[in-house]
Specification:
183 residues, 6 helices, 2 strands, 57% helix, disordered N terminus
């Protein structure tokens, strides 16, 4: 079991360290599993978060990233940095190896990419291994109502902030199906 997870994590790490021309995950939400297990439901929650984050952050301009709704408010980039930190917390709480230990400042593009890869890695481990939810560093219940729910909340904030800065969310995105609407 540990050998299977380690091999999967090494392969996923190779993907996350690949060429910059690779396609980022969550352009569309992956097809759902036919079976309902604790792991497939948890993986689907992460997939929904990844899809929403992908489209909340797709096409952001410098003026969007620097937009603050008020003098005391947080700029959009600060919210995106917080979501990246939440993605690291989720990844590092679920995985015993292959943690995101980055402490360096990332550009928006690299932060966005790494956030999406963190979500994808966790989802894949939950869905494709014999991972046990009770093996997380903190109770998985707290991961759901803590960083997962918080990241969803903040994705909505990014959507509101980008609309306020004149760059609204793509209206062709169907959040119900997780696909691009046909035109």
């Amino acid at each position: 079991m540990k050998k299977i997870i380690f091999t999967f994590l090494v392969m996923s790490s190779m993907f996350s360290n690949g060429q910059s021309e690779e396609k980022l995950p969550y352009y569309e939400i992956p097809d759902y599993q036919e079976d309902y297990t604790a792991n497939t439901v948890a993986a689907r929650m992460i997939d929904g978060l990844g899809f929403r984050y992908y489209w909340a952050t797709e096409g952001l301009r410098d003026e969007d990233l620097n937009f603050k709704p008020s003098e005391t408010g947080r700029a959009t980039i600060g919210t995106i940095e917080h979501i990246y930190g939440l993605s690291k917390f989720i990844r590092n709480s679920v995985l015993s190896d292959n943690k995101d230990a980055n402490k360096t400042e990332l550009s928006f593009e690299n932060m966005r990419k790494q956030t999406l890869l963190n979500f994808k890695l966790v989802s894949d481990v939950l869905r494709n291994t014999n991972f046990q939810l009770q093996d997380t560093e903190v109770p998985f219940w707290n991961i759901i109502n803590g960083p997962i729910a918080d990241a969803l909340w903040h994705c909505g904030q990014v959507v509101v902030l980008r609309r306020s800065s004149g760059n609204p969310f793509n209206s062709n995105i169907n959040l119900f199906s997780g696909k691009i609407k046909s035109r």
